[in-house]
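User: I'm curious what two different proteins look like when written out as structure tokens. Can you demonstrate?

Assistant: Sure. I'll show them one after the other, since each token string lines up with its own sequence. Here's the first protein:
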Amino acid sequence: MHRQLIVNGDDFGLTPGVNSAISECARDGVLRSATLMANGPAFDDAVRKAKDTDRLGVGIHFTLTGLKPLSEPGRLPVLAAGNGRLPSSLSALIDIALVRKEARGEIRRELFAQAEKVFDSGIVPTHFDSHKHVHILPVVVDVLIEIAERYSVKWIRKPFEDPRSIRFFADVEEGSRGGFLKQYLRALCSRPAHCLFRSRIAKSGLRTPDYFHGLSSTGVLSERVMARLAESVKPGINELMVHPGYLDAELRAMNSRLSLSREREREILVSEDTKSLMENRAIQLIHYGEVKL
């Protein structure tokens, strides 16, 4: 069985600098896939770059936290209460979804609006995933399944990392190890949702990659960690989540914890060493639309 790897750049559409880095990593590096934020401030720029970038498969990065919704805030009185923005975090979204039953209809309305915007732009999505992996929540994944059925999308990210990724700890730079452990523990905390997620996806007919990588290394990716990740790519379909970008004024203004790490990820993804790692391991770099079964 072949080792197939989908290197996916999340947050396509967040800022022009993120868009430029994703396009560059697809053109000159190992990235072959990206997921588009329909409510991202730089959505139109991302669509233009996607259409101009060969070999870049584009999916939808459904976003229910942090940004402004596509729906008018008045149509989301629970989900976008107060300042007209979506909940600030996954935990805040969970609190709203659990306590306020009317939030479920609002979640469906906003997710469909995001899907429709992407399709209306002329992009035919290769797959679905979500910002902060909110689709581990049944109320979210059920809607994504409905959208996938309507638009004949066949693939969705399985956002559950192998607990054995703790073995990467020694390869993380000392100053970044606290961040790695925090991400690793978050990944462990999401594991109880795996069984329910897997059951829903199996019934839906959607497909997921066999293996998912990159959750614990978010924000702390280094050359050594990338080398270890390449060694961990197994026969079958693998996905590696990455967040490359240029630190432009728009990204600085967002005060994202990933602001500085994005430029380093970009450098790693276009480096000759990384390309050699993939070649030496006989790893086939693909996007979701190129999966060989």
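Here's a second, unrelated protein for contrast:
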Amino acid sequence: MKRLAAYIEGVGLLAPAINHWAEGKAILSSTAAYLPEKTRYPAVGALPATERRRTGQVVKLALSVGLEAVAHAGQEADDLPAVFASSGGDTVNCHSICETLASDDRSISPTRFHNSVTNAPAGYWSIATGSMAPSTVVCAFNASFGAGLLEVLSQVVVGDCRTVLIAYDQPYPEPLHRARPIIDGFGVGWVLTPQRTEQSLYAVEVALTQDSAHVCSDPALEALRKGCPAARVLPALQVMACNEAGRVVLDYLDTSQISLTLTPCH
């Protein structure tokens, strides 16, 4: 695979005990201790009241990290193409639909139905931001973050345009959780651009490799990395949080992993 290179201008993060990238930087750089607690899903003020009432946790998760990344980059979201990556979409809504279909009354509400599609967060994103730019949604089970990263880099390089990557996952309720355990909600947003700008934070070069994936030295962070597909990005975020140059390998497929070479721009 040809190496793909771009620049990261903005970062958004939401995870257990991490409510935004500034908190994440402190924890991932070991400046602050990591004391896990349940992920808090903020309301999305950018959505009209009617849409806010219809959204579930996964939409709040996706939009919050995407909007944070765009704001961090000093950009406007209304003209940014977007790539959404998730291994399961709205898992809570999936559980509720399964309960309904297993009951005597199989009538599924229109709201639950339209929230069940994988591209629902992309639709709410366009409503919240007023964006008419194209969006892409990818789903690749545990490899979903890697698939989203390769997709967004392809668009940035080939299309020569600034693009936002939004990767997210949330757990299933029981009994689906036993079949597909995800530890908690996790979301990350990156704004990437093909050329270096004044807002550029890190240069990133990506390639496939057969090297083993890096792990997190903190047991709680490693449990999160292994327990949520979107959290496979954590070793890269640790390098970025320390503002150091480095190469990290992220979990991707059984036969290949993804190598990221990160270099601070400031």
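A detail about the second structure: The chain has one domain: 4-264.
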